[in-house]
Structures are given as structure tokens and as C-alpha cells.
Amino acid sequence: MKYLLKISLFTMLLAAVITACTKMDTLPFYGNGTPVVLSASSTNITPAPSDSNKIVASFSWTNPHYATDSNTQKFVLEIDSAGRNFSQKFVSITIGKPSISFTGKQLNDMLAAFGFTPGQSFAFDVRVTSSYGNNNEQLKSNVLSVKIASYLVPITLTPSSAADITLLVANATSNAISFNWNESGYGTNVINYALQMDVAGNNFANPQVVKYGTNLTSSINVNDLNNFAIAAGIIGGSTKNMEFRIVSYLGTTYTTKMVYSNVVSIKLTTFTPVPPALYIVGDATDGGWSNPVPLPSQQFSRIDAVSYGIVVKLTAGKSYLFLPKNGDWSHKYGGASATGGALLSDNAVPGSNTPAPATTGMYQIVVNFQTGVYTVTPFTNTIPSNLYIVGDATDGGWSNPVPTPSQEFTRIDAVSFGAVVNLTAGKSYLFLPVNGDWSHKFGGSSATGGTLLADGSVPGSNTPAPSASGFYQIIVNFQTNTYTVTPYLGPTPLPSKLYIVGDATDGGWSNPVPTATQQFTRINLTNFQLTVNLTAGKSYLLLPVNGDWSHKFGGTSATGGTILADGNVPSSNTPAPAVSGSYLIDVNFLTGKYTVTKQ
């Protein structure tokens, strides 16, 4: 048995040896091929914006003669700035195709990715590396030198209307004009846009600028456009052409300008911005050049949304100015004529100031900020020094003298008086210039206001009270000879002054507060305004008496709302806005509302 097993093993080994000595067919062998020769459709490639989606450049090369199906061969096109030895190359790969083409946008995006400035031409090195599909047998072509220029996408600026625009202060918060424009991209870079505005003919030498980030639309309200126009050089109340254009910037810093749009020209008629108050100062007035001026005798009355009026004694041969802020010389208004004319502002006011009329006397001055005109006319009526209210519509009845101060008017300015009184429906009243004296009287025929009548012209039934009993604000203006009667929603008694205190202000919680910066300006009987710096995350209160914590006003909203008093004010006080900055606080006790507006 062992013998047979040995014979079998020997036979198997012998068969294996014979098989190993049998000659097989030759294994396949793939040659190295030859480096391709690269060529370009052009060596100076200058695409235009209109070529964005068109083929502008093609690179092709010869057959590498690899010993495989050409459809499996791999080609890597490399592009880099000349002289960098392809250290920061752009790569494009194709399989089985001996060429690569590029659109204008593809090349422009490539240059943008390299960080090259748009609108210029740059030198590049180009080569192709060929290989089998598995990357074996890589062979590099010749290096081709080409120039490639980047381009800028033009911007078309389109206004909502090209018609003439008359800016009206009554429409201050309404939209004046809107613009839109197309995107002007450059690769993946962030592109920001800004609108430039200037007077026609200035060639945008010193334009007014509004930045819009990446937005492609803008909307400018009447007040803002008016301010831009005046800052550009269009005097309030005048008409000129204003030019607009969009500028694109590379990145977010607004330092690298790229594209200027077409210029849009629109004719604008401006108004002089209406200040919250107006005063008269000068040696032509009784107060002289002392600033602040005496109040209320040299404070103007607000006639309407666009104009102020005052009746004041002017001395011949002297001069004067109008000031928007009492005690401050920063801004001024005036003119060149003693009888009125174009209203000038700041440096445009003559160095000799506004001349008084040739004859000393009482004059009515009306300043219209919409038309940019002031008028000076003789005034012959008499304005009383004081004013009182009497009648069964009042708490004091017809008793004369009347109780003071509850039925005594407050002198608001040089020509007007105001009071907040409780009036009983179905009753009547009169205004008296002298308490306890029936010699003269004023009144009217309407329960809501109208023409102010005097003495015998006052109806025998006297001035009727409103149809509903309650507190009312009464304003009597002796310059316009009018009176108004309006429901009053604010606190009683009405404060005569107003201050701001709190850590949201520069003065902190120290009380008394600094009056120069934290005292409100009284615009009229019930309206106070103050522009003040407020710090985000802090709070404040409004005080009717400086240095006294007995009474306070405030609210729950950072942007405005209902005025709360004393115990109703939140213990956390009135919150400052979310962003620190300069804010206009408007407190209107007539409506019982306050607003906080970023300046």
C-alpha cells in the first residue's frame, strides 16, 4: 500500500513539472506614449460682459499615443499666473477629449478667484498633463503663454420715475423716489453698492452717499432726499437738477470701487428743513445779541407744518438773525432784505446779518421753510401781555377775577398763549386780557376753534364749549388771529419744563441733571423735544422739575408709546433703544404719546 501511494505522488509531481515548462502567450504591454503639444484658440483673450455665456477661449492638444482606447485617457489642464511655476494653479480635467473650452464668465470667475483686479489683463502659463485613466504614465505638455483680461459687468440704474420732484415738508416721511439696479458680480466675491447724489454739473466731485450693502434696490423718503439735496448744494426752496448713480465696491469696506452705473438726472425742488423751534436774536431786538434770548418774547410761534411767525419790535439801522436753538450759534438763518426774501442759512447768511426795516416799530415776521422765504411787514394789532379764561364752562364760572393759575394762560411765545382747562359741555366762556376787568374780551363762534374775535365782535352767546365735557388744550394766536380747542389726554397739571435723567444718558442718575444737554425744548404748550445720546441696555425717566424725584414720566417701549406718570412708570424705567446713538425724543402731552427716533 505504501508503495502505491509513493507512485501516485511522483506522478502528480511529474505532471506539475511538465505543465510549468509549457510556453504561454506574451502578456499585454502598454507603452509610455508621447507628451502632447498644447495650443490655444488665442493667446490674447479679452472677453466682454456680453461674452459671459459664450465660448471665448479653447485649448486643444495632440494625441499622446497611449496604447489604450483614447476615450479612457485623462487630461489635466493647468492655468497659473506667469512665473509661479503652477504653485497656485487652476485645474480643469477632461477624459477622452483633447480640448477644453471656457465661457467669458468662467474665465472671469477664475481671475476673481486668483484675486486679480477686475478690468485688467494678466499673463498666464498654461499646460496639460496627460495620463492613463488611472493616472499612470503622466506626461506634461509644453507651457503656453497667454494673456487673459477680466471684465466688469455694467450696472443699469433705473428710477421709479424720472419726472420732476417737488419735495414737500408735509410729505416728509413719504417715499420720494426708488431705484433698482442689476447685480455686477465678480466671481464669488461679495459686492456692495452705494448710491451717489450730486448737483448736476459737479461731476460727483463731492457726492452725498447712501450705502446699501448687497441690496439691489433703494427707497429714499422726502425728508432724507431733501437733506441730501441741500447738503449737495441745492438751497432750500430752490430748484435744480440732481444726478444719481450707483457704484459697486469689491468687498464690504467700500474702498475698492469697481463699476459706475449710468447717470440719472432728476429736477428737484427743495424745502429748508423745518427746525423744531425758532428764535430771533440781534441788536435790532430788545434782547440785543445776548444768547440765549429772552423767552417767550423772542421765540417764534409755529404757524403750520412749514412756517413760523413772530411779532416783535425791530429797531431801524440794526440787524438780527434767526436761530433754531436758543443759546447756540451753530446754525442760523437770515436774509439780505429788510422786507423779506430768500431765506438763507449758515454761511450763506450775509456777514452784516439781516437788516431791520428803515422805520422802528412792531413787525410781523413769517418764515416759510417750504418756500425758503421770509416776510417782514408792519403789525398794527395789539398783543396782550396776559390772557385768562372766564365763563360757566370753566370751574371758576363767571366770577371775575378768575382763579389763578388754573385759569390763566401760559405765554407760549411772542404771539400765542395756551392753557389746559376743564370745560363743561353746553356752557360758554371768554378770554380776558386783564383779570378782573370786563373792558376787553376775545372769543369765537366755534366750539373747536377758528377766527379770533375781539370786543363787540364776540357773539353775545360767548364762545361755546365742546359737545363733550373734559379737559381741553386751548391755543390763542394773536398773529394769525385764530384759536384752537383740542381734547387733552395728558397729565394735569401740565408741566412747564421737562428733563431727562438715567444711566442711558451722559449725566447718569445724578439729579439735578445738566440743563445744557438734558433739558427739553418746549415746542408749544404741550409738546417738548430733545436730541440726546442714549446708551443701549440702559434706561431713563422724564422729570417735570429738575432735582426733584416727586413726579416722573416714562413708558414701556424703546421706540415710543403711551406716556405714563408716577406710579404707572415701570420700575425698570423707560428702556433705551437697542443701538446706542443720538435720538430725538418727542413728548406730546396733548396726545399722551412719546416717540424716540434715531438721528
Explained architecture:
With 599 residues, this protein is mainly β. It folds into 5 domains: 38-149, Immunoglobulin-like (Sandwich), CATH 2.60.40.10; 157-269, Immunoglobulins (Immunoglobulin-like); 281-378, Immunoglobulin-like (Sandwich), CATH 2.60.40; 388-487, Immunoglobulin-like (Sandwich); 499-598, Sandwich (Immunoglobulin-like). Residues 1-27 have low confidence and may be disordered.
Summarize the structure.
This protein is mainly beta. It has four helices and 48 strands. The protein folds into five domains: 38-149, Immunoglobulin-like; 157-269, Sandwich (Immunoglobulin-like); 281-378, Immunoglobulin-like (Sandwich), CATH 2.60.40; 388-487, Sandwich (Immunoglobulin-like), CATH 2.60.40.3620; 499-598, Immunoglobulin-like (Sandwich), CATH 2.60.40.
Give the total of beta strands. 48
> Describe the biggest sheet?
6 strands, mixed
Distance between the termini: 116 Å
**What would CATH call the homologous superfamily of the largest domain?**
Immunoglobulins
Structural class: mainly beta
The shape, in one word, is elongated
Q: How many H/I helices? A: 4
Uncertain residue ranges: 1-27
State the name of the first-level CATH class of the largest domain.
Mainly Beta
